[in-house]
Each structure stands twice: as structure tokens, then as C-alpha cells.
Amino acid sequence: MSCPPDFLRLGEEDLDALAALAESIVDFPWSRGQFADSLAAGHALLGCKAAGSLLGFAVTMQVLDEVELLDIGVARSHQGQGLGRALLQRAMAAAMAKGAQRMLLEVRASNAPAIGLYENLGFRQIGQRRDYYPATTGREDALIYDKELA
Ligand SMILES: CC(C)(COP(=O)(O)OP(=O)(O)OC[C@H]1O[C@@H](n2cnc3c(N)ncnc32)[C@H](O)[C@@H]1OP(=O)(O)O)[C@@H](O)C(=O)NCCC(=O)NCCS
Which domain holds residue 111? Predict the structure, then answer.
């Protein structure tokens, strides 16, 4: 992986790069305003940069002993090199350090790379929400996954 072990908390100064990265990797990305709201709400925005450029991010929201993965993404040029796994492992470790015992997430039923990442890390499907997401044609189900962290 060309990304050095430089995983860091993202802030206001990263919002433009976050929005640009999200827009370049998914059809329905978070906007800059959504990332800003998330930051203002106190969510954890973890990023990985190389040579000052943002390569990946993971956003989590923790309430007591539960943490939800709200978004995760890796630049297309760096996908398939272990960066998504590293980001998610670090997000889980950070949440555990703050007392989280369980992580939850939702994913589009068609998102095979993300589902592969989650199942690879031991997440299991616990539910399904029909027609939850807008899709390029019609709507798409959300799959709900969880993992015990403790
Ligand atoms: C999902 C995503 C973050 C994965 O990041 P990544 O850095 O490419 O993933 P990694 O290289 O760390 O792969 C870790 C594991 O995920 C799984 N995986 C990764 N890419 C996959 C693919 N295309 N198909 C199936 N499984 C895949 C594999 O199990 C892989 O382990 P392996 O390499 O030992 O086989 C990345 O594809 C991405 O940014 N997608 C667009 C944004 C997105 O959909 N986010 C999820 C929102 S819920």
C-alpha cells in the first residue's frame, strides 16, 4: 500500500477533499454539508492521507456502547490494497477504546465490495430494509450488519 501509516482525525480543513473523494467513488455521495454536519455533531471522521492527499475515510457515530459506521470510502486508485480494511479496523479499535461493544452498519444490497469487506472482518447480516436507498433506477434494499467488538 502506498499510504504511509498516517491515519488521522479529519477536520474542517478536510471537508472539500472528503466531498470530492466521496463524489468520485459512489453514485449517491455524502455532500460537503453532510460531512460538515457529521463533524459538528461530534462523529469520528478518520482519514488516511499520503503526500497530503486524502486516500480514504471512515465516519462513525458512537452512542454509549454502540457505534455505527456511517460511511467509508477509498479512492478508486487505491482500492483493493487493504486500505478499507485498515480504516475499518482502526475505526473499530478507536470505538472500543471509548467503550463500544458493538458496531452496526447499513449497506446497499448491490455493493459487493463493501459487503465483502464487512464479511471479511466478521460482520454478520442481521436485517434488511426493503427499498431503503434511492438507486439509479428505482430503489434498492439496505442490508443491516453488526459485529460484537468486545
Ligand atoms: C468498500 C471499499 C471501502 C473497500 O475498500 P478497499 O480498500 O478496496 O478494500 P480492501 O482492499 O481493504 O479489501 C478488504 C476486503 O474487502 C473485500 N473486498 C474488497 N474489494 C472487493 C471486491 N471488489 N469484491 C468483493 N470483495 C471485496 C475482500 O474480502 C477484501 O479482502 P481480501 O483482499 O483479503 O480479499 C471500497 O471498495 C470503496 O471505497 N467503495 C466505494 C464506497 C462504498 O461503497 N462504501 C461503502 C458504503 S456502505
Answer: 7-148
Classified as helix, coil or strand, 45 is strand
Instruction: Return the SS3 of 98.
Output: coil
Best residue for ligand 1 mutational test, from 83, 85, 108 (most atoms within 8 Å of Cβ):
85
Note the pTM of the prediction, 2 decimals: 0.96
Give domain status of residue 120, yes or no.
yes
Note the pLDDT of residue 3: 44
pLDDT at 4: 56
- Residues of the chain whose pLDDT is less than 50? 1-3
Evaluate whether residue 134 is within a structural domain.
yes
Which atom in ligand 1 lies closest to the alpha carbon of residue 106?
A: 48
Q: Is 1 inside any structural domain? A: no
What integer pLDDT is reported at residue 150 of this predicted model?
A: 80
Q: Give the chain's domain count.
A: 1
Q: What is the CATH number of the domain that holds 111?
A: 3.40.630.30
Is residue 73, in this structure, part of any structural domain at all?
A: yes
- Please report which helix (H) or strand (E) contains residue 78, including its range: none
